[in-house]
Amino acid sequence: MSRLHDLNFFVKLGTAFALMIVAWLAPDWRWGIPFAALVLALLWVTRVPKLGGYLKGAGLLTLMVIVSWMINLLLQGIAPLDALAIAAKMAARLVATTALFYFVMETSTPGAILAACSAARLPAVATLVLSLLFGIIPMLRDEFERIADAQRARGMEIDDVSFLKKLRFALARGVPLLVQAIRTAHAISFSLTLYGFDLSRKRTTWRDVGLMVEPRMTWKDPIR
């Protein structure tokens, strides 16, 4: 698993995009569902952290996609079995896509992303966007879990309840999560201003970035 963390961020990102394209090119659910199951199996084999939490979210996503697409397609006059087949195909695509990028997020540290972007000489804006995109989502997920722990500490039963109540409680966490997201964005913006972030200034990297990203600089290596 540690070697997956050291793998170049762009190699992982490119692989995820390629597999995502394969998932979206699947002709129907008979191909899409096995492919999504294969992607999930790969996450389990590689022991991606916090996989259980992702699987719960993926299950909820699958249910919401199937129900919403079924209702939409049935209102358009499509036969129930045909509507279910289309809904299952879309759910499989989304599960495969989210699983692939979940893998990228969980195996890429902000430092490794910055090092890879700097070595590739990407523009500062692109580097900033990639770092924030793949760094802030895990932060918000952890905040979502902390909000749930705070609800439990206040005596709210959110575990041994019906699915509809779990869904309602999960949606209720959206307001504090949104507030925390705004605060985090403000803190990041303030930090960038405080440290003199300038889009016109070129950045350097102290890591050796190739196919693999070296975790640290050795004493004999010069700073580049």
UniProtKB/TrEMBL annotation:
Cell compartments where the protein resides: Membrane
A GO CC annotation given for this chain: plasma membrane
InterPro entries, sorted: ABC/ECF_trnsptr_transmembrane
Entry annotated with the keyword Mitochondrion: no
Main subcellular localisation: membrane
Residues passing through the membrane, by range: 7-25, 31-48, 60-79, 85-105, 112-137
UniProt keyword annotation of Transmembrane helix present: yes
Domain of life: Bacteria
Membrane-protein topology: Multi-pass membrane protein
Keywords: Membrane, Transmembrane, Transmembrane helix
Family (UniProt): Belongs to the CbiQ family.
Protein name per Swiss-Prot or TrEMBL: Energy-coupling factor transport system permease protein
Species this protein is from: Salipiger thiooxidans
